[in-house]
């Protein structure tokens, strides 16, 4: 193939059927290296997070009957971008070569002399059927399967579908893009010899938190789909294997399926919470309200690190406190040996675990994960006359230093990090709250509450949150929310991410 000297390259990437976790490692790599990402309606927006910050993101629609850019325009676009030297990731729902028009795009690239690669994706037939609990083949039912378009090229004068062969010659049939033509599909199959009582499943938004499945038979499915209001995007599965869904369905049994939950935690810390909620079936809307940064004035922390030999204890009140303390310690050319003579206390197991990752255990871990509990834990430990270092967030609560000082200790409270308001897509959040498409907002600290509140229009904040559940990681965070006028509906008993998830699951159980 001859390439223009200045030409870039195009990757035709299968994005999978909806669950962003189903994209291939190769697909993620292509998105990450692309100068331009051209994506369509069925490609999960979460996949765009893999793109470079400076990448150009172009939405081209491709929603049934409503194309933001027609196929000819998409073809011209990817050729133009590649000819200008860009690496282009053409992100397509499902698999590019299974009813994805990837073959047409490849032909255009060949004609234009543009280098390309095809990155296969999990097709909706496989992904949606698996998530619905329907194996497409099974030794007791069938050993053959056919993928069929339910929406042929509207310019064709005759159908290329051999209905007789499909009706009597193939065990499992999977129709793509066929929900509008479901009456015709069912009728054609019955007229050509398929028994009217053949099981059928229609799966909408397969593999996503909005997955919905309706089952019936060829003679009943049309009315059942009409009553359920099932619309595109959906696939249709016809065959005896549909019966297996009764025992094999698993995805739609997830306790938080369909719940739309806002995660306000800092993006670099949100992954565990997002993962846990997603695994339970929720759609997580990441809206970080804070970002964690080093202190504007690092001199006090530097002095404390230089004088570590003067301290008896160091008390960590958060994972961030540990992380930013050691980050600065290493930047100063020191290592964990500088703390060898110190005793340590941590506010909770997550903080203690992070400290342990640097090679240090914790001498005190309170039973409850708040400042008051740290104070109670020190009651049995004489600290009068001792010097305690407290590296933590700027403007943290004063309970701990005040009470330790009252016990006779000298406490040096230094700022190890600051939490600032993060830049999030406020308009998108407000639009979703306004439309009633948010079920819950989670708060993991008082700062996430206050910054979230600042994002909302002051005169509409409580109106927008009407009917939205508020889940809090603990009583301090809950009180901040109440002070701002929010009703806390869920509060963790253990003030950790695990405790928060457990409380949410219990409330929705």
UniProtKB/TrEMBL annotation:
<dbReference type="InterPro" id="IPR050161">
    <property type="entry name" value="Siro_Cobalamin_biosynth"/>
</dbReference>
<feature type="domain" description="Tetrapyrrole biosynthesis uroporphyrinogen III synthase">
    <location>
        <begin position="272"/>
        <end position="501"/>
    </location>
</feature>
<dbReference type="GO" id="GO:0019354">
    <property type="term" value="P:siroheme biosynthetic process"/>
</dbReference>
<dbReference type="GO" id="GO:0004851">
    <property type="term" value="F:uroporphyrin-III C-methyltransferase activity"/>
</dbReference>
<comment type="similarity">
    <text>Belongs to the precorrin methyltransferase family.</text>
</comment>
<dbReference type="Pfam" id="PF00590">
    <property type="entry name" value="TP_methylase"/>
</dbReference>
<dbReference type="InterPro" id="IPR014777">
    <property type="entry name" value="4pyrrole_Mease_sub1"/>
</dbReference>
<dbReference type="InterPro" id="IPR035996">
    <property type="entry name" value="4pyrrol_Methylase_sf"/>
</dbReference>
<comment type="pathway">
    <text>Porphyrin-containing compound metabolism; siroheme biosynthesis; precorrin-2 from uroporphyrinogen III: step 1/1.</text>
</comment>
<keyword id="KW-0627">Porphyrin biosynthesis</keyword>
<dbReference type="InterPro" id="IPR014776">
    <property type="entry name" value="4pyrrole_Mease_sub2"/>
</dbReference>
<keyword id="KW-0169">Cobalamin biosynthesis</keyword>
<dbReference type="GO" id="GO:0032259">
    <property type="term" value="P:methylation"/>
</dbReference>
<protein>
    <recommendedName>
        <fullName>uroporphyrinogen-III C-methyltransferase</fullName>
        <ecNumber>2.1.1.107</ecNumber>
    </recommendedName>
</protein>
<keyword id="KW-0808">Transferase</keyword>
<dbReference type="InterPro" id="IPR006366">
    <property type="entry name" value="CobA/CysG_C"/>
</dbReference>
<dbReference type="InterPro" id="IPR036108">
    <property type="entry name" value="4pyrrol_syn_uPrphyn_synt_sf"/>
</dbReference>
<dbReference type="InterPro" id="IPR003754">
    <property type="entry name" value="4pyrrol_synth_uPrphyn_synth"/>
</dbReference>
<dbReference type="GO" id="GO:0004852">
    <property type="term" value="F:uroporphyrinogen-III synthase activity"/>
</dbReference>
<feature type="domain" description="Tetrapyrrole methylase">
    <location>
        <begin position="9"/>
        <end position="221"/>
    </location>
</feature>
<keyword id="KW-0489">Methyltransferase</keyword>
<dbReference type="Pfam" id="PF02602">
    <property type="entry name" value="HEM4"/>
</dbReference>
<dbReference type="GO" id="GO:0009236">
    <property type="term" value="P:cobalamin biosynthetic process"/>
</dbReference>
<dbReference type="InterPro" id="IPR003043">
    <property type="entry name" value="Uropor_MeTrfase_CS"/>
</dbReference>
<comment type="pathway">
    <text>Cofactor biosynthesis; adenosylcobalamin biosynthesis; precorrin-2 from uroporphyrinogen III: step 1/1.</text>
</comment>
<dbReference type="InterPro" id="IPR000878">
    <property type="entry name" value="4pyrrol_Mease"/>
</dbReference>
<keyword id="KW-0949">S-adenosyl-L-methionine</keyword>
